């Protein structure tokens, strides 16, 4: 491929991304190579004035728009559709990667870039840390599992299920003993899940539990936690119900989703079938305020029936 062809491909990609100071003279249309039936090939790329266009920037590539914006998530990439309204309706209804179109056998530039951006965001939220400053603002103190850093957290789930000796000591000293309900917050597999949802879920959750007449323990943050860590905390504090708000493993469309795992009288011999989960808590799923009400209701049932998981009749 000669240099001019490469330059024109680069320019056409930049144009599709909304760069306006790409020298027009050099932009040539990138034609898909014809292999087999041309009937299956979408039309060649044409720069359009659609989503993604942004103000001119002198520095090519600088200031490209955030690919998580709604207009990219709900982007209809199918051109010349037989029934356009069916596709645009579908695109409006979901954040799933539908109606992306294709360039020959490959994804279109815009959908490939969005895919890569979503993937980076998911990886970021797993490796990022909840900062001590943020915890201080939330009035939360922290303890740690036996994991020493993020990399070990990912390699050794078993250590994330156990409290460090120091954590046991601090919890013993600072927490109210034998409350009816103990709330614990943990980063788990998504830091954004915690930092984006906590401020909206904690106040209605704590208020809801108190208004329901339950004695509520001292909430705290568990760094590098796995779900089973709630069982050791339960044994330690002798709480009737343990509620663990923890970051979910991110997906390619959603990286800030929180779960609440709930158990009645957890001990170290608690098994998964004793546990329940309210998942998908985030603004685009079950909104945090609504989730708080669901959790309060479930807690009431656990305390009434003295059971959780499969033993609980819902
Ligand atoms: C990863 C995952 C799994 C993995 C867990 C392996 C592991 N060690 O990570 C596997 C494939 C084994 C799994 C199995 C199941 N899962 Co699952 N799982 C998930 C997923 C994608 C992420 C969970 C997560 O990030 N947890 C946080 C991290 C930090 O936890 P962890 O300590 O590393 O791992 C623990 C939890 O993941 C927990 N867990 C995982 N799934 C479930 C399901 C239930 C009901 C419970 C109580 C616990 C639980 O078990 C792990 C070991 O303790 C969620 C999707 C989501 N949006 O949350 C679904 C999800 C939680 N799972 C679900 C279901 C239904 C199941 C199964 C019942 C499927 C089945 N029919 O067998 C089983 C139950 C397993 C169990 N532990 O009881 C549903 C729960 C729906 C609900 N609200 O009740 C979810 C929300 C998916 C969905 N949208 O349908 N799961």
Automatic annotation (TrEMBL):
Protein name per Swiss-Prot or TrEMBL: Ethanolamine ammonia-lyase small subunit
Subunit composition and interactions: The basic unit is a heterodimer which dimerizes to form tetramers. The heterotetramers trimerize; 6 large subunits form a core ring with 6 small subunits projecting outwards.
Gene encoding the protein: eutC
EC number: 4.3.1.7
Binding of adenosylcob(III)alamin, residues: 227, 248
Ranges where the record places region Disordered: 17-61
InterPro entries from the UniProt entry: EutC, EutC_C, EutC_N
Source species, domain of life: Bacteria
Note on cofactor: Binds between the large and small subunits.
Source species: Marinobacter aromaticivorans
GO molecular function: ethanolamine ammonia-lyase activity
Keywords: Bacterial microcompartment, Cobalamin, Cobalt, Lyase
Pathway given in the UniProt record: Amine and polyamine degradation; ethanolamine degradation
Composition-biased stretches (Polar residues): 21-42
Listed transmembrane segments: none
Family to which this protein belongs: Belongs to the EutC family.
One Pfam family it belongs to: EutC
Stored HAMAP family: EutC
Enzyme category, top tier: lyase
Subcellular location: Bacterial microcompartment
Chain's role: Catalyzes the deamination of various vicinal amino-alcohols to oxo compounds. Allows this organism to utilize ethanolamine as the sole source of nitrogen and carbon in the presence of external vitamin B12.
Cofactors: adenosylcob(III)alamin
Catalysis performed (reactions): ethanolamine = acetaldehyde + NH4(+)
């Amino acid at each position: 491929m000669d240099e001019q062809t490469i330059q024109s491909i680069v320019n056409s990609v930049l144009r599709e991304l909304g760069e306006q100071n790409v020298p027009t003279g050099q932009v040539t249309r990138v034609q898909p190579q014809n292999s087999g039936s041309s009937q299956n090939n979408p039309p060649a790329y044409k720069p359009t004035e659609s989503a993604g266009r942004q103000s001119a920037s002198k520095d090519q590539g600088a200031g490209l728009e955030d690919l998580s914006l709604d207009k990219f998530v709900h982007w209809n990439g199918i051109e010349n559709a037989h029934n356009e309204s069916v596709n645009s309706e579908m695109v409006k209804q979901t954040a799933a990667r539908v109606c992306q179109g294709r360039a020959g056998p490959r994804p279109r530039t815009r959908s490939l870039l969005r895919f890569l951006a979503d993937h980076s965001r998911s990886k970021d939220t797993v490796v990022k840390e909840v900062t001590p400053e943020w915890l201080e603002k939330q009035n939360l103190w922290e303890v740690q599992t036996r994991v020493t850093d993020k990399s070990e957290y990912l390699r050794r789930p078993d250590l994330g299920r156990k409290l460090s000796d120091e954590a046991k000591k601090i919890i013993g000293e600072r927490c109210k003993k034998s409350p009816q309900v103990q709330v614990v917050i943990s980063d788990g597999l998504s830091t954004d899940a915690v930092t984006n949802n906590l401020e909206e879920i904690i106040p209605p959750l704590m208020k809801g539990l108190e208004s329901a007449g339950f004695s509520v323990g001292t909430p705290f943050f568990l760094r590098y936690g796995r779900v089973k860590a709630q069982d050791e905390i339960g044994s330690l504090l002798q709480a009737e119900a343990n509620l663990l708000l923890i970051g979910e493993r991110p997906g390619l469309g959603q990286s800030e989703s929180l779960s609440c795992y709930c158990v009645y009288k957890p001990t170290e011999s608690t098994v998964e079938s004793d546990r329940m989960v309210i998942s998908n808590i985030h603004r685009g799923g079950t909104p945090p305020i609504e989730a708080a009400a669901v959790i309060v209701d479930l807690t009431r049932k656990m305390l009434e029936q003295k059971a959780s998981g499969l033993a609980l009749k819902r």
